Amino acid sequence: MQKVLLSGNEAIARGAYEAGVLVAAAYPGTPSTEILENAKRYKEIDASWAPNEKVALEVGIGASFGGARVLVTMKHVGVNVAADPLFTLSYTGVRGGLVLVVADDPELHSSQNEQDSRNYAKFAKVPMFEPADSQEALEFTKLGFAAGEQFDTPIFLRSTTRISHSKSVVSLGERPQDVPQPTLERNPAKLVMLPGNARRRHFAVEDRLRKMAEWSCRQSFNRIEKGAGKVGVITAGVSYQYVKEVMPDADVLKIGLVYPLPEQMIRDFAANYETLYVVEELDPFIEDQVRAMGIQVIGKDKLSICGELTPGRIQKGLFGQESPTEDNSPELPPRPPNMCPGCPHRGVFMELNRAKAYVTGDIGCYTLGFMPPLSAMDTCICMGASIGNATGISKVISAEEQRKVVAVIGDSTFLHTGINGLMDMVYNQSTATVIILDNRITAMTGRQENPTSGYMLNELKTYRIDMEQLCRAVGVQHVKVIDPYDIALTRKTIREEMARPEVSVILTTRPCVLVPRDNQERRTPLYVDHDKCTGCKACLRLGCPAITWDEEKKKPNIDKILCVGCKVCQQTCGFDAFVECK
Amino acid sequence: MSDVKNILLAGVGGQGILLASEVLSEVMLMAGMDVKKNEIHGMSQRGGSVVSHVRYGKKVYSSIIPEGEVDILFSFELLETRRYLPLLRKNGQIVVNNLKIAPPSVALGQREYPENLVEEIRKKFPATTVVNGLDLALEAGNAKTVNTVLLGALSKTLDIDQALWLQALKKMVPERLLEINLKAFALGCNI
């Protein structure tokens, strides 16, 4: 058998392939994004990016009803968007197996909250598997399809950042030869969720959960690993690995199906120990249910609900032992992420800062507009929120202050859930200004195609949504299209539209600098002519990584390797000191 | 006692750290060991601090290196080396690229880049190898092979058959860049 190193995300895609999946749909979101990027490498799978997670799941549901096995993936907050179809899908059940992968982000490495998606399993009554490494990620994905079809239910596969982005050794299997051709098959009593039908289906859902909890007690994905027999630990997912590291002698009940829990198995295991731990990241999800069985455990009284676990944090929480390292470091200059050199968003934020705008922000690379020296973002809640937030805040402030309110959103986020906010703005006659930073790509998650790119996930050309026409069709009377590298025009347009007591949209049209396809134009790096430079630091307001301050000369320098020649800095300089390299 | 060996890679987004950790992990897999590797990515291309954990041995559980158990800090930048020193074991080893990249606060003239880092690192961890990665990469013929030069230097501290390193590079480096990378690797080995 071939052994390879795969990330959890690669292993999930491989598992889908080996399960005979025909369709995969997703909206990108860290740490889930690479699953679909890997699924597309299997030509048997029709993998596509949807404009948002709700659409992705709805496409998945359709394909399942057609009879195909389907993989749908998203990050934890994506499930909030997809929750509407999810809760009713739980009632209809599936035809072809449907595995919904949700990738949580304990520690908020790249997220706006650290919600624990296991609660969705309980809430939506959808069974959930949780792998502890890449081999299990592959196996549990396959298992999800089989179990989902056996019990007529969608299945959650929960990953976390440390599973999705860790690589470990995996043995590969094969795809079945005979994946059947899906066909139409009507079953309206099961698939049309009118109250009369749904009432009956709810009983089926409850019955299914009871049966799965019993079945689960006899399955090898829930297993007991014997240690010295003195203490017991119940754990699941990545926490299992840390338990094995910190408590090598403990007896461990490792749970693979985290909802519904194998109750009898837990009771039998727990009966053996005076000291029983539950080790899990985020919420006391397993712990609360075990306590409800009347079993006393040590868990979140010792381990934090906030942040991810590590071997050291478990050691410290359960046994009070400080990790051997002692951080006596002086405070070092931090190294936060920054917009790339040549990023078309940079000049827009510098001008928003100068115009003293109150910026309702959104989710994307441009959220980095919050960071100094740009410092031009006042709110950021969730995908698409900037526009509704701008409408709401404008409702309650004075006419003078209303002029300061600007919503800033990217193309992908606008199409995800921002456009509904814009409809509301026009319909209810808001006065705020919207800036859509259209760089034709879903940049922050690593440059995924979207309906503004003109390309699909499979790299084939497709229609490109005309954002200007779209905004006009919604009813926006003032749509200004600008090149954000033209700083004078950017400044003038932002100020004019902020002053206008009507809805207006400013659409910036420079593509992301990291997409070679959209950056064919040759540009020359710049240098600073120190004879002309007065050391006024105006250029430093851009926070461009290519510009560094020379403390000895009291003048800036440009790193020629980093500079892409966007010339935005040249336009901030009043002394013509920024010159193209020969 | 566990035989697991822990290498922490550190540096700045865009320096080729993830590729280096891929090659390193592949070498260990080919050497017949259990391997786990872990890193946070998704925003790193925008110049942030990047770390990658690589662990190998007979059986590896956690993909995160337990705090204070790093055997080798393999670092691509000096300030990032300093940042992760507390994770090293006593008598840990360091292979470090002799390079300073100014973080934003330094580039803006608000903070100073710490001075005498090489001396400070050496004082705390005498088993430190400092590599002039860029010079050697330029000597190999491409500034972007710094990560391969550094892998060469790292390979000297590990007891792994040289042939496996070359095999891994051949597998993972695009063919048109292979020759230059093999040269870079050899230069790293010879320091």
Low-confidence runs of at least 5 consecutive residues of chain B: none
Q: Mean pLDDT across all residues of chain A, rounded?
A: 96
Radius of gyration of chain A: 27 Å
Spell out the CATH superfamily of chain B.
Pyruvate-ferredoxin oxidoreductase, PFOR, domain III
Number of domains of chain B: 1
- Give, in spatial order, the strands making up the sheet with the most strands of chain B: 2-3-1-4-5-6
Helix content of chain B: 40-55%
**Major sheet of chain A: size, sense and barrel closure?**
7 strands, mixed
Helix content of chain A: 25-40%
Say what oligomer this is.
Answer: heterodimer
CATH overall fold name of chain B: Pyruvate-ferredoxin Oxidoreductase, domain 3
Known CATH architecture of chain B: 3-Layer(aba) Sandwich
Specify which chain pair forms the largest interface: A-B, 61 and 52 residues
Query: How many domains is the backbone of chain A divided into?
Result: 4
Poorly predicted runs of 5 or more residues of chain A: none
Rg from alpha-carbon coordinates of chain B: 16 Å
Q: Which CATH architecture of the largest domain in chain A would you pick? A: 3-Layer(aba) Sandwich
**CATH topology assignment of the largest domain in chain A:** Rossmann fold
- Report the CATH superfamily of the largest domain in chain A: Thiamin diphosphate (ThDP)-binding fold, Pyr/PP domains
Q: Number of DSSP strands of chain B?
A: 6
